[in-house]
Each structure stands twice: as C-alpha cells, then as structure tokens.
Design brief:
The chain is α/β, with parallel strands linked by helices. The chain is 54% helix and 13% strand. The protein folds into two domains: 2-135, Rossmann fold; 141-216, Winged helix-like DNA-binding domain superfamily/Winged helix DNA-binding domain (Arc Repressor Mutant, subunit A, Orthogonal Bundle), CATH 1.10.10. It contains eleven helices and six strands. The mean pLDDT is 86. One of its GO terms (biological process) is regulation of DNA-templated transcription.
C-alpha cells in the first residue's frame, strides 16, 4: 500500500480526495492535516510515502511545508494538489523539491496515477502543468526558448550516451523500475545513473531533470 499524508484546509476536499485514493485499492491515507504546520509535523511522525499538499493553507502554506518536508523527511515524495489558477507557484513548488503537481479539477484517475508515480520515484505533472513547464514556466518568447534549448544542449553534452538515454526516459516520466526494464538493467544500476545525471546537470530532482531533457530534445513528442 502507498501511504499518503493529505493536507488541505477544506474538510470536504480532503474527504473527496481520500475517497478517490481509497477506490484504487493501493493507497491508504494515513494522516490528514488542515494546515501546513500540522502537515510538516505529521509527515515527520508518520513518514508517509507521499505528502499530497494544497498550496493555500493557514499557518504555513503548502509551498513552505513542501520545502520543510523535503528537507526533514527525505524518504517522503511531495506532490502539490491545487488549482491551475495558481500556476505562478509551479516554479517555486518544483524548485523546492516537489516531484508532482496535480490539479483539483483533473480526472480522478489522474490523481491516482500521479500519487502512484511519485511514490515510485518518478515525476508526474498534470498535462496542463506539463505544457506550462515545458514552455519555460511562462516564458514562451522565441528568443528565450532558443536560449534555454542551447543551454540544455550544453548541459547534456557532458553526459555519457547511457546517461543521456536514462535522462530521456526520466523526461518521459518513467520510474526507476520501468527504466530498468526498458534498458535491461538492474534497478540499483538505474538509481546510480539517475543520481549521477542529477549531479552532473546540477538539478535537485527528477522534475528539473525532465525539463532539461525536454528542452534538449531528448524526449519524443
């Protein structure tokens, strides 16, 4: 079972999300919080597989809570659950270590798939969010895009062919077990490759690596 901490200041939202996740038969909500400070404390106490956080919460907002959970509970993956109208927060959430960004207005199956993905070590962005991120987090001007593509090509040039192959699969959203199966490697070897890729690219997590992969043209569209 995937153990989930759910944080949202609206009880009805929590009830709906809990029901959706429970319907999958593979997810258990082990703790619920109504504000960000409580979410951090419960994450430290329960050490869930996934912390699913709303952005707008009292006492401590979800973005600050996410950063604190990433820092103090490294075994817990963090995903944000919010409205797309708050897309200005996407950059900070991903920069702070979140590996998932899900929309409250999304399909229930998308929510289940997202929690499953981040629990497995992969990144998951709702389609609208993914499009926004790949367009440069709001900077869709042609010159800026060309500059980012050039910078991305320079960054991946230092990777070995196998590391670029792993990066392309990370960019496609595959988890470590899926990459291992695709490349006929053991999972431990894939984890070592992923760690090396993150280090050599100078990024903090798989989402940031995936952005580089897309900008460098390593991911088929």
């Amino acid at each position: 079972m995937i153990r989930v901490l759910l944080a949202d200041d609206e009880a009805m939202v929590r009830a709906g999300v809990r029901a959706i996740l429970g319907s999958s038969g593979e997810t258990e909500v082990v703790a619920e919080a109504g504000d960000g400070r409580e979410a951090v404390g419960l994450a430290q106490a329960h050490r869930p597989d996934v912390a699913l956080l709303d952005i707008r919460m009292p006492r401590l907002d979800g973005l600050a809570a996410a950063e604190e959970i990433v820092r103090t509970v490294p075994g817990t993956a963090v995903a944000m659950l919010t409205t797309f109208s708050e897309r200005a927060y996407v950059a900070r959430a991903l920069g702070g270590g979140a590996t998932g960004f899900l929309l409250k207005s999304g399909d229930p199956y998308e929510l289940i798939a997202g929690v499953r993905a981040v629990a497995g070590g992969a990144a998951f962005l709702s389609p609208k969010v993914a499009r926004y991120v790949i367009e440069g987090l709001g900077g869709a001007d042609g010159g800026g895009r060309l500059a980012r593509e050039a910078a991305a090509h320079a960054r991946v040039a230092v990777l070995s062919p196998r590391e670029r192959e792993v990066l392309s699969l990370v960019g496609a959203g595959l988890s470590n077990p899926e990459i291992a199966a695709r490349l006929h490697l053991v999972e431990g070897t894939v984890k070592a490759y992923v760690s090396a890729v993150l280090d050599r690219l100078g990024v903090r997590n798989r989402v940031q690596a995936a952005i580089v992969a897309h900008e460098a043209g390593l991911v088929a569209t």
